[in-house]
Amino acid sequence: MNWIELVGYLGSFLTSITFIPQVYKSWQSKSVGDLSIWMITIVVTSTLVWLVYGFAIKSGPVIVANFIVLALTLVLFYFKLTFKKKS
């Protein structure tokens, strides 16, 4: 593994953790009222496109980052569909 690939994996890690605070906060509060369903849909779609690209070019960092982001975003999507709005 060369230094460029290490930089890629570092970027992959940092990208992957961006949604962790939001998922945790949403889970704890059982509230996702302020999250836009359109934003979640766009992130899921763009992540799927990036995954196709990552597999096409056989790039581990791209695949890892986008797989994790997809999983976290799908959790938010699930929360958006299941958590009831607070009045």
> Roughly how much helix do the residues carry, as a percent range?
over 70%
Overall body shape: elongated
H/E topology pattern: HHHH
Any idea how many domains?
1
Radius of gyration: 15 Å
Uncertain residue ranges? none
Mean pLDDT comes to: 91
CATH topology heading: Monooxygenase
The structure class reads: mainly alpha
Q: Could you give a short account of the major beta sheet?
A: none
The CATH architecture name reads Up-down Bundle
Structure description:
The mean pLDDT is 91. The termini are far apart. This protein has one domain: Monooxygenase (Up-down Bundle), CATH 1.20.1280.290. It has helices at 3-16, 20-29, 37-57, 60-82. Helix 2 (20-29) packs parallel to helix 4. It has 4 helices and no strands. The protein is mainly α. 78% of the residues lie in helices and 0% in strands. One of its GO terms (cellular component) is membrane. This is MtN3 and saliva related transmembrane protein.
